[in-house]
Design goal:
The protein is mostly helical. It has 9 helices and no strands.
Amino acid sequence: KNIINLILSLQLLWLLPIIYKFNKDVFKRSIDIALFILAFVFLIQLVGFYSFGEYLDVLKMVNNLEKGSKFMAYNSWAGQTGINLIRPTSIFNEPGTYCSYSFILLALSYLHHKSFTRLHMFVIITFFLSLSAFGIVIAIISSIYWFYNEFKIRFLNKNGVLKFIIFLSPIMFITYDLI
């Protein structure tokens, strides 16, 4: 089964430059669609677990694996917060893997749009919610970059810095003990 996945992946890799060459618009829209699907599955897993107590393990369903995703948060986090935390993975095995692949798509999408969209902000929020150290760092860096580029003029004054600190403070407070 792994060899079949490898062959299919290599075929797709071979087709990407051809698709981009002949239809750039479809290629660029496909990046946004893929980004939306990954983030939407992530959100369904998060909301589904906290609403119904069930985790939608897409990886286990698709690959018929016994183990499935590594979505449960560490026991120490549950002890510290009193909440049974999860780390949604979307279609991947680990939350960090979700953040890695999604970040690549996020960067490509940003290069296409040349500004941050609502989809980009949604994905950055999922990075924070993933409780992945890598995801949180990438989300913070992306937020700083977004604030700086979108609000250059306003960011340089005291009010801009204050708004930025207010934006990041709750996120840092929540995630500080969890990292």
